[in-house]
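dude i think i finally got it to work??
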Amino acid sequence: MNKPLIVGILLTGILVTSIMIGYSQNWFQQPSSPSEPSPETSSSPEPTATPQSTSTPQPTPSPQTTSTPQPTATPQPTASPASTVASLNLVLEIYGNANMDDKIDSSDVDYVSRIIGGTASNTQFADANRDGIIDTNDITQINALINGQASKIYLLDGNKQNISVSLPANRLVVEYNQNTELVRILGIENLVVGVDSGVNPVKTLFFPENAASITCVGGMSAPDYEAVLNLNPTTLLVFAPGSGTTATVAEKASKLPGVDVVYLGLYSPNVTKPEDSRFIQGVLKAGYIFNKVARATEYANWILNITSYISTRVNTIPENQRRTVLLTNSPTIGSARAYVALDTLGQACILAGGTNIANAPAGSTALSVTLETEFIVSQDPDYIFLHTVRYTYGGGTNPPAQGIDANDPSEMANVLQQYVSQAAFANLKAVRNNHVYLIAGDFRNNAMGGTLGAVYMAKILYPEVFAELNPQAIHQEYLTKFLRLSYNLDTNGVFLYPPITVNGDTVGIPNGTA
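look at this
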């Protein structure tokens, strides 16, 4: 065989072998399609020790966090309804948010540097330490907030008043359910040393780890100030309506020297303009106060995902096909009051697509109004929701038994029967069609800002529009993932009566108790 032929054969063998090896090692793999993100991202990695707010809260399917312990005996939550909304025009009301977006991060450091250098204008929250001067001390404060090392934080409270909070805030007295549940959501329940009398009856449920060491300090309207001071707290989280007013916050602060009295604004959701919501602001601010920014942002995302999903579906319902609704209180509590748009239940009704028959006078800040029987009869609402309060602001207990610590719906059934048996209401559409529901106080007085109530209402008012919505799945997700409670809605809790059936499952009361 001649020499050139031999060389050619050898070269061909080498080439074929190289190709085979290349394919086996994926050398010739086609690059990923633009629609398929590669594992690497172009953004700079965030330091793991620094709490970072992600972005303006964007409703996304709730992420599954592996770090949060999930009770094995409790049903695991399903994903919340997927939804996409435009970015919120939200300005985080914390000093240090120099560029006026939804978070405090390195871009605020850059912005303050530009103000100092004369290339950017001053903004409302650029003076991070509130000393009246924009200088490098503000950069130091911003970096301390980013790194969770600040000794003080300056912000607007839920009344839009300037306040400061000394950090770390590590001994807490909390008023009412909204604040109580938020501290569990943020994972700081171990910091609680005192609660008001509205929370005290259920403290073993909300604080199973340390209930025995938590002291009741009396009703939030008239707390035992000496008892509060004896606990040596750093912070009192107050609530509303009465305790959230500017005057009441100032009065409590005057009687609690050395204690930061903070009203976050959780009583004021705004489902029609979430960017103006004091509720969402309060959740995010708490994240910075307690160095739990990522958790607070995740929770805000989850809430906004649900509200966006409901709102999008409701917007498909013509106005002339919207259900009319009466939102009133349980007849055993006192005079019949109807909740209006500014109240959390009124907000829930708006979100769920209901048309509230009760309205406050123009310009009024009232949360409820009195409706005469004749007016209710003349409006003839399609649905009636009776709100029940188990534990009052002042520490009282009202029938019927309902909520997180009740398992027997018989008292709810009795109250419902009393209401629908009233002769004046016998011919109401809601009564004749069995569309009268008792709802637990949790639908108004928890840390979901009326969202939980809206989820149940939407399913009841428009079962066809919300055919795939399962209120219990979202409720369970809240209890298991965010509150981190070992609590099973199949066997515990009376929240809605009569119950509804979703996919063959009883929703609103424990299975087998109807």
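Confidence is low (pLDDT under 50) at residues 1-74, 82-87.
im so relieved honestly
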